[in-house]
Specification:
Layout lengths: L2 E2 L1 E3 L2 E3 L3 E6 L2 E10 L3 H19 L3 H17 L1 H12 L3 H22 L5 E4 L5 E9 L2 E5 L7 H12 L3 E5 L5 H13 L7 E3 L4 H10 L5 E5 L2 H13 L3 E5 L4 E5 L5 H13 L9 E7 H17 L18 H17 L2 E4 L3 E2 L7 E2 L2 E6 L4 H4 L6 E7 L2 H9 L6 E5 L3 H10 L4 E4 L19 E2 L9 H4 E9 L1
Parallel strand pairs: 1-5, 8-9, 8-11, 9-10, 11-12, 13-14, 13-20, 14-19, 18-19, 20-21
Antiparallel strand pairs: 2-3, 4-5, 6-7, 7-23, 12-22, 15-18, 16-17
Bound molecules: NADPH dihydro-nicotinamide-adenine-dinucleotide phosphate (NDP).
NADPH dihydro-nicotinamide-adenine-dinucleotide phosphate binds next to helix 7 and helix 8.
């Protein structure tokens, strides 16, 4: 089998490899991907540092052309790359193709942004002096990504980093190197100069750690768990390095008595269980007022009965497998915890056997949960949802905000008053009205508050806040 190698200083290198296994069919090896070392990482950082002076001064047309070419190729290969994504991560083929299209759109967006780079020229408060405010690239950006969005998250970090003139060392999650390798290959062939984008696949504790330890990495953008995020933060503070963290969520979806039942059920089923619940924006807490509670539970349970859990590549599958054995154990451990805490298992909770061996778990709904239970406070990151009954809107809002996280929050209501109040008073970074808490646009800011995020927002033109450093220059006229 071919080994997909690391890209360091424009050369494909590496002979040790790790198997990329399909969670829908554990007999299938998706590919062999290089297992990078700390030395590989240091070489990649040195290459990125050497490439920075020229790339940071490259013309914006060159950056536009490369980013546009990448976006076009990803779109042209959406079915093939979507299938690779579904096979390595386990989300359904339509979801995987959708994510691939989104990656392409992100490259197209930043291809446009490259042509819109601008600063400000403003008068000084003192006479005869001019002030210019410009944005400079940061330098070498370390990119560390999780397994749950194997093409979109790398795209929304790589595209702005290149657009604003930075060079990159990129470490994807070890579980899903395939899509990352593909987009690095596409960008390399699109004409990026040597060393501008370096790929080092391998373990977080080796490759990721070597990035954290290097004084030559000037910025780190990280998406992943809260625990690893804390390590990124403390190592970055030590090096006086800029960093950005996107971490977990325990996103609430409030359902009020006046909600359109069909809209509420659709939003809850989609954001609680699609992508196997493995989205940082998943609605893992449903907070439902008394008047609609029983009707909502009955309708959601009926909906869950119709959802097909099976091989991600099979037509008709709504929910693919859990990503791996470790995550499956986390999910089943939490199901046990929920039972012991006294929540009522209203649906699911069991492992499923399918034609191909994989990590299949029923969508699982706990009712009669409280917001103090561990299943309602800790991020599970699987298809396991707690439903909490509350008296009224005021209690719903207080419960929604009573969490260490603050990524996304939703409300299902037909009341303009409650929708408006919720948008203003939710403590989350993203708020959805009559929509799933998961599922966002690519051209507007993405990110959370409290324990979910740290640093500037990602995506859209707000991405410039992280990937550039502002300079203020004064000139005597
Ligand atoms: P992890 O924190 O385990 O891993 C994230 C990345 O960090 C991986 O590439 C991992 O490498 C790497 N890593 C692990 N240890 C280190 C280290 N010591 N130094 C540097 N890098 C390291 O998270 P998961 O991949 O398990 O992703 C799931 C988590 O991500 C969930 O908590 C989820 O909520 C969060 N997430 C947040 C999003 C957001 O935008 N807020 C979006 C998507 C996910 P390795 O390959 O070895 O695992």
């Amino acid at each position: 089998m071919t080994i997909y190698q690391n890209l360091i200083a424009g050369e494909w290198v590496g002979s040790d490899a790790t198997k990329n296994i399909n969670p829908s069919d554990t007999n299938e090896v998706v590919g062999l991907y290089a297992d990078g070392t700390a030395e590989d990482t240091r070489n990649a950082i040195a290459a990125a540092k050497a490439a920075f002076p020229a790339w940071s001064r490259s013309g914006i047309w060159e950056r536009h052309v490369i980013l546009k070419k990448a976006g076009d190729e990803i779109m042209a290969r959406k079915d093939e790359l979507g299938a690779l994504l579904a096979r390595e991560e386990g989300k359904t083929l339509p979801e995987a193709i959708g994510e691939t299209i989104r990656a392409s759109q992100i490259f197209e967006f930043f291809a446009g942004e490259a042509l819109r780079l601008a600063g400000e020229v403003i008068p000084s408060v003192r006479p005869n002096i001019g002030v210019e405010i410009t944005r400079d690239p940061l330098g070498v950006i370390g990119i560390i990504t999780p397994w749950n969005f194997p093409i979109a998250i790398p795209a929304w970090k790589i595209a702005p980093a290149l657009c604003y003139g930075n060079t990159i060392v990129f470490k994807p999650a070890e579980l899903v190197p395939g899509c990352s390798w593909a987009i690095v290959d596409i960008l390399h062939r699109a004409g990026l100069p040597k060393g501008v984008l370096n790929l080092v696949m391998g373990k977080g504790s080796v490759v990721g750690q070597a990035m954290l330890d290097s004084p030559d990495v000037t910025g780190i953008t990280f998406t992943g768990s809260t625990g690893t995020g804390r390590r990124v933060a403390s190592a970055s503070i030590e090096h006086n390095r800029k960093f950005q963290l996107e971490m977990g969520g325990k996103n609430p979806m409030v359902v009020l008595d006046d909600a359109d039942l069909a809209v509420a059920v659709e939003a809850a089923a989609n954001s609680g269980f699609f992508s196997t619940g493995q989205r940082c924006t998943a609605s893992s807490r449903l907070i439902v007022t008394e008047g609609i509670h029983d009707k909502f539970v009955a309708a959601l349970t009926e909906k869950l009965k119709t959802l097909v859990v099976d091989n991600a590549m099979k037509a008709g599958t709504h929910i693919g497998p859990v990503v791996d054995e470790k995550q499956l154990k986390t999910d089943t451990d939490y199901i046990e915890i929920g039972r012991k805490e006294g929540a009522k298992l209203a649906f699911g909770g069991e492992l499923i056997t399918r034609e191909t061996p994989g990590f299949y778990l029923q969508p699982t709904l706990f009712t009669e949960a409280t917001n103090q239970m561990r299943i309602s406070r800790e991020e599970i990151f699987g298809p396991v949802v707690s439903l909490i009954r509350v008296r009224d809107y005021e209690e719903a809002l207080a419960t929604a905000n009573d969490t260490p996280f603050g990524l996304s929050a939703g409300i299902a209501t037909t009341s303009l008053k409650h929708a408006t109040h919720f948008k203003r008073n939710s403590e989350a970074g993203m708020v959805m009205v009559n929509l799933p808490t998961a599922g966002v646009d690519f051209h507007v800011p993405f990110g959370g508050r409290k324990g979910s995020s740290y640093g500037p927002r990602e995506q859209g033109k707000y991405a410039a806040e992280f990937y550039t450093s502002v300079k203020t220059a004064y000139t005597l006229a």
